[in-house]
Amino acid sequence: MKFDAIVIGGGAAGLFCAAEAGKRGRRVLVIERNAEAGRKIIISGGGRCNFTNREVSAQNFVSRNPHFAKSALARYTPDDFVGLVKAHNIEFYEKKLGQLFCRGSSRQIVEMLLAECRDSNVRLISGCSVEKITRDGPFIVSTSQGSFVSESLVIASGGLSFPKVGATDIGYRVARQFGIDIVETRPSLVPLVLSGKAYRELAGVSIDARVSVDGESFRENILFTHRGLSGPAILQASNYWHRETPVTIDLLPDGNARDLFVRNRGSRKRLDNLLADYIPAKAAERLFNPDGRSRPLNTLNDAEIAAAAEQLSGWKVHFRDTEGYDKAEVTLGGVSTDELSSKTMGSKKVAGLYFIGEVVDVTGWLGGYNFQWAWSSAFAAAQAI
Ligand SMILES: Cc1cc2nc3c(=O)[nH]c(=O)nc-3n(C[C@H](O)[C@H](O)[C@H](O)COP(=O)(O)OP(=O)(O)OC[C@H]3O[C@@H](n4cnc5c(N)ncnc54)[C@H](O)[C@@H]3O)c2cc1C
């Protein structure tokens, strides 16, 4: 069967691209491996899908080319997507930091995308796995449900994170097949793991902090886990973390640790008791009185005060690893932006071949940015196919 375009992957980017191309009169087929399209959307945002952010710029993304996302983000903005959500009467709210969530369920976003596809006469085949792609003039896509032919082929198969909801490496395999470069992939927006069992007894404790790594800083909560640290600030930092790069944590983000200790120099309180007014007592004790030998503040000399201040506001943490793709919300790296037109997402080497969404080396921060990239990159390709 012949189509103008075949989209591989019925997730956020694939469904939206198909609907938009369909509106332009293109005959589009979406091939989805899962029985149900948009499964990652369904589990996103704790079931409420943080579908965009009020403020989005290229600075909210990690890519080898930090300018690549600009063009697509400018041509399909958060306001554009919010307009679509409103047109479908989906109620939403801002949770924090510009993050927009469905008030009801993330399924509403999937239903909206499917309705858009239906209105644009998109054909969707689900429960269908792609076996082989060949090119003989048009692209020939061989699947478990037969072969399909198209002039354009859009790869919207996502990244490697959360394999239990259907992630596969097909996008990277297709890129390699056509000689297209891939920036090394790794799990991100993911909890980080410490060596040994350090701080295990703090599992579940959450602290408002500022986390800095590789020149970027995030002010949100950190959460101790059985294996290391998680929480929004750590997930954000994981986008910038490399092995050997220490992460610096300021546990007193609204104050100056040195001033605090100098102000309390005459106090007979122990350091950990003083700090229990600022961070959870359990954490104050584990971090500032680990051997039970913490002394009253009025007995500390200048060097000891300076060391305590450094530990409170410049705590350097060396992580061993991440919790891997099973726990990662996204995949860093992917199809190299050097290989793609930033206007169309089309391959510079292979006419008619497009890559959109998470499979591309553009990864957003936590907070709705990854879906906005899916919508914006999908829209760019939809105007070109
Ligand atoms: C738990 C979790 C929560 C998240 N929450 C948010 C959030 O609230 N806000 C946000 O912005 N981002 C969130 N993300 C990230 C976001 O879900 C992704 O960045 C986004 O879905 C990427 O869109 P995509 O279309 O590129 O890929 P996907 O949505 O992953 O879609 C790819 C599709 O391709 C299909 N596929 C894969 N291989 C094949 C194949 N061989 N043949 C056919 N089909 C195939 C998959 O089954 C899938 O349906 C979250 C991610 C996770 C894991």
Folded structure, characterized:
By secondary structure, the protein is of the alpha+beta class. The protein folds into two domains: 2-187 and 324-384, FAD/NAD(P)-binding domain (3-Layer(bba) Sandwich), CATH 3.50.50.60; 192-322, Translation factors (Elongation Factor Tu (Ef-tu), domain 3). It has twelve helices and 21 strands. The strands form five sheets. Strands 1, 2, 7, 8, 9, 10 and 20 form a seven-stranded mixed beta sheet that branches. β1, α1 and β2 form a beta-alpha-beta unit. α1 runs parallel beside α5 and α1 (12-23) packs parallel to α12 (369-384). The radius of gyration is 24 Å and the shape is elongated. The structure holds flavin-adenine dinucleotide (FAD).
The distinct ligands, each listed once, are: flavin-adenine dinucleotide
Helix content: 25-40%
Structural class: alpha+beta
Kindly give the count of domains.
Answer: 2
Number of strands: 21
CATH superfamily membership of the largest domain = FAD/NAD(P)-binding domain
Task: Let me know the largest β-sheet.
Answer: 7 strands, mixed
